Amino acid sequence: MFDTGTTTFMILATSLVMLMTPGLAFFYGGLAGKRNILGIMIQTFVSLGITTILWIAIGYSLCFSGGEGGIIGNFDLAFLKGVAFNDIYGGPEGEFPTLIFVAYQMMFAIITPALITGAFINRVSFKAYLIFLVAWQIFVYYPFVHMVWGGGLLAEWGVLDFAGGIVVHATAGFAALASVFYVGKRRDRESRPNSIPLVAIGTALLWFGWYGFNAGSELSVNANTTLAFLNTDVAASFAAITWLIIEWSRERKPKFVGLLTGAVAGLATITPAAGFVPLWAAMVIGIIAGAVCYIAVQFKNKLGWDDALDVWGVHGVGGFIGTIMLGIFASSAIHGQAGAIEGDWGFFWKETISVFVAAIYAFLFTYLMLIIINLITPVKVDEISEETGLDEALHGERAYDSDGAL
Fold this sequence. Notes:
The chain is mostly helical. It is built from 15 helices and no strands.
């Protein structure tokens, strides 16, 4: 029998995660220059359509069908063949319909490649991005979902990732860095955010949706669910204030964008650990997230890497260090797995090695994939399109009515 409370909760959590994709579009759209608002937003919104089709066709099957102890699943559940509308997730002891689990995981698949787009804003053609969107999921995202959450290789090894430090943020963040290295720098790197209020709206939607992202990953309603919920908010808050204080002390002015970016860094960093660590650890993780991600962004700027919207510094580094923090702070009293602080250094090394492997693989494969895509269609837009802005050059639209002026 379905548990109506848990079923309702999972529907709500799925809806919250779906809301994160438009939230990401607003976040990136506000940070973009005024000539590239729609270009970055359509790259995010189109994932809602393309990824849904791909997920129903083969994605869910490759992630959660067969392949026990392996790298990828099989096609037994392609187009959800054999998944009845009234199947119970987890078998007779389950609490909600399997189709809700399909939808919930689909929302993760939708937002993960969209995270990457902020790194190469106003430099990549839409046609090349669509190929990238499909290929990256099949060859990067799906294998790591299967290995960590689908009973694959890393799961059998004992690796944990509550809501996507390895699977989502490390892979997307380091793929973003590879994209930056491949497409090179923007011609105009001085463009300012066109709408900081839009960035604030995007941050609010991301923060709100992240409760479903993390708390929903418990796939049940219990004490761990509420802990993951509170840990999410606490880490984001501590990270936001840490970033604000550091930036304020360095630049002598409190920056709103810095506060918002720090919150997202905290959300990304707590994600792998949200349901595995005590509340005090979430505070520590938030402080570390705000400081380390800020340093990563400054390091990136110093080296001249043109990660336009700091995808690597926030999501890549956040997911990376969050996974390592999980290896340190995991509590056996919460979910049965102790971390290094309780004496289980083996688990710490499993988490550390796994996130290193994920980051390296995502970086190398993404770079190689872009080379191959470029043989099919140019990845980078021409100089005229970049100067004009992708909104007008590629999409023939403008975000704001400006009486003919760009």
